[in-house]
Design a protein that fits this description.
There is one protein chain. The protein is an alpha+beta fold. The chain has eleven helices and 23 strands.
Length: 453
């Protein structure tokens, strides 16, 4: 799908996947509270809010809440999602530069730049302010010229300034440090609203020498069309909705936060970098995309792109790997379940170590046998309860982790690898509780005491 609009149109073919809200709603807490209330009723639709405090720009949110919608975005079934992502993620296709695109139908520079025209959302009560949460940031390494993309939170500070959080464990933080070492500000362009493949590609955890636009092309199965920015030497998706061009100052810092993050906890104020906008470009009638911070949407969006890198690392350590899952119960980041067809004892320990090496955010790894459904946590807990032996598990102290992990001390955490596989050569026969059930007549047994439901 070339752009966000094609995805929205596709969702209309699936009943219940997209709701439209025409009644007035405030972007300050009321919008997100609406999503939370729907979730409490077990309704996880994407929602298009068409009347956000009278702003002419609609807000689309909760888009990435389910694996089903991400599968629709990649044109596959939910059951195929992991396999399709893993396959396409490394089928690099270079972007195609085009002369013009809808993202530059309107161009604002100088005094005309005003973030106030966007319906930016304040998500949670203790947040430090309104935050842009669905902006794909693009920059280049000043030494190699290789393009890098990611998604960064942006706190509104004024008409043309935001705080920007460049996590120390991220590739962009390394790139930013390279600019600072050269005494230069880091040019960056942030795209709000694009094809789902762009978001999933931007969050890929492949090495820093891989261009994320090539990954986006692989996920699209065709080149990502890009246009030159107006004020910085970068390219952005031509069919995006809104773009903010500018630079991150190599010296300036400001207190950014608090902010409700993916672990469902607030991170405190931090002296973070500042983004100054030199141009705003957009479609004539753009759609503003938002990600509900700290919710299952935030967690789900961050989990799928990590699975590809983890899977490939584990495959080196355990060739019999079947599948990988980052459960939402651990926020799509902190824990990982891996199913393998174990060849030799000790292989699960190598597999768990490979997971930890692949993704610094993961601190609990559970390895189970290939016949365990890792997407059903009751089966994973069952495997732990049956087969985990403490002497086969291990801990790594003071490893690099997430800076917002509540267990982290100076960015370091303790990681645990859990072997919940059967010993090689030992067979365990499960009771088949469904066997013969078709021969049982409950009405015959209970008579009139049985109440049909």
């Amino acid at each position: 799908m070339k752009d966000l609009r094609a995805f929205i149109e596709k969702l209309s073919e699936f009943p219940g996947e997209l709701l439209t809200a025409d009644g007035p709603v405030s972007p300050k807490l009321e919008l997100t509270r609406t999503i939370y209330k729907l979730a409490n009723d077990n309704r996880h639709s994407a929602v298009m809010f068409n009347n956000v405090d009278g702003n002419r720009i609609p807000v689309l949110t909760n888009l990435f809440r389910t694996r089903k919608r991400m599968a629709i975005g990649l044109g596959c079934s939910e059951q195929e999602l992991n396999r399709v992502y893993q396959s396409r993620e490394r089928n690099y296709i270079k972007p195609k530069l085009v002369a013009q695109g809808p993202i530059q139908e309107v161009v604002l520079t100088g005094a005309d730049i005003d973030l106030g025209i966007l319906p930016v959302v304040t998500h949670n009560t203790e947040d430090g302010g309104a935050y842009i949460t669905a902006a794909i940031g693009t920059t280049t390494d000043p030494n190699t010229g290789i393009r890098n993309a990611g998604i960064y939170r942006l706190q509104i500070l004024g008409k043309n300034r935001t705080g920007i959080h460049l996590a120390e464990s991220s590739q962009v933080h390394y790139i930013y440090k390279q600019y600072c070492a050269l005494g230069k500000n880091m040019p960056i362009a942030l795209t709000i609203g694009a094809t789902p493949a762009a978001y999933l590609g931007a969050l890929s955890t492949q090495s820093i020498d891989v261009d994320e636009y090539d990954i986006m092309g692989g996920l699209l199965e065709e080149p990502l069309e890009v246009v030159k920015c107006r004020t910085v030497d970068l390219e952005v998706p031509a069919f995006g909705e809104i773009c903010l061009e500018g630079y991150v100052d190599c010296k300036e810092r400001t207190n950014e936060g608090p902010f409700g993050e993916f672990p469902t906890l607030y991170g405190g104020p931090m002296p973070n970098t500042v983004f100054t906008i030199t141009a705003m470009t957009m479609r004539k009638s753009p759609v503003y995309l938002d990600v509900c911070s700290g919710t299952a949407e935030h967690q789900q969006l961050g989990s799928l792109p990590r699975i590809g890198q983890v899977y490939n690392q584990v495959r080196v350590a355990a060739p019999g790997v079947k599948d990988v899952y980052l459960p939402l119960s651990a926020f799509g980041r902190n824990a990982c379940y891996v199913s393998i067809k174990k060849m030799v004892d000790g292989e699960p320990q190598n597999a768990a170590a490979a997971v930890m090496a692949a993704d610094p955010y993961i601190r609990h790894v559970v390895i189970v046998d290939h016949d365990v459904n890792i997407f059903d946590e009751s089966e994973v807990i069952r495997a732990i309860s049956l087969y985990m032996r403490p002497e086969n598990c291990f801990m790594i102290h003071r490893a690099k982790g997430s800076p917002i992990d509540p267990t982290a001390i100076n960015g370091m955490v303790t990681k645990i690898g859990i072997d919940a596989t059967k010993p090689v050569g030992v067979e365990s026969r499960k009771i088949n509780y469904s066997e013969g059930l078709d021969q049982i007549d409950l009405k015959k047994i209970f008579g009139g005491a049985l109440i049909d439901k």
